[in-house]
Write a structure and sequence with these properties.
171 residues; mainly alpha; two-stranded parallel ribbon; 5 strands; 8% strand
Length: 171
């Protein structure tokens, strides 16, 4: 989730640099063990469910830096929450109106959003590209910055979207 963590870190940096204080508690998380079976996110989501933590929404940033030719953001529609997905689309329309947002499916619990969804929490997963045109180097030795966006401009779109998500959801 390196590019997703980078996008999230940029969102946090920008909010802190501007003295942002949310009205609701906001938790930023990076998980271990995704490729081994969603271990970190699964443990946290289970703990939150068991202890009754009120989770208003979860936005999962996994891969954010490979730009497909057809879209800027692909909203994953399986193992996610449809109303929250619409909320994220509305954020993009309002705050990032030049972005092309489309839908895509993984066909399985492909990232940490699924841990939250499976525990009944509203989760969304904006992805870097429709799966049909996603990074051809994924999970290979060639999955490098040189074969993605060396400027980070595509990942910045996700930092901006996640900032809008926090600012609106934490009111």
């Amino acid at each position: 989730d390196a590019s997703g963590v980078a996008s999230l870190t940029e969102a946090i940096r920008e909010m802190m640099a501007n003295g942002y204080t949310p009205e609701k508690t906001v938790k930023f998380m990076a998980y271990a063990g995704e490729e081994a079976g969603l271990l970190g996110s699964g443990a946290i989501a289970q703990n939150f469910q068991t202890t009754g933590v009120n989770v208003v929404g979860v936005l999962q940033l996994d891969m954010t830096n490979y730009k497909s030719p057809s879209a800027d953001i692909a909203m994953i529609t399986d193992f996610t929450n449809a109303p929250q997905n619409q909320f994220v689309r509305d954020l993009a329309t309002t705050y990032l109106p030049t972005l092309v947002v489309t839908n895509s499916v993984c066909g399985y619990a492909c990232s940490d959003h699924a841990s939250w969804h499976n525990r009944g929490f509203p989760a969304s997963f904006p992805f870097e590209a429709p799966l049909s045109s996603s990074n051809p180097f994924l999970h290979t030795a060639n999955d490098t910055l040189a074969n993605s966006d060396t400027t980070g401009a595509h990942a910045l779109k996700f930092a901006k979207l996640s900032t809008a998500y926090v600012l609106e959801l934490a009111k």
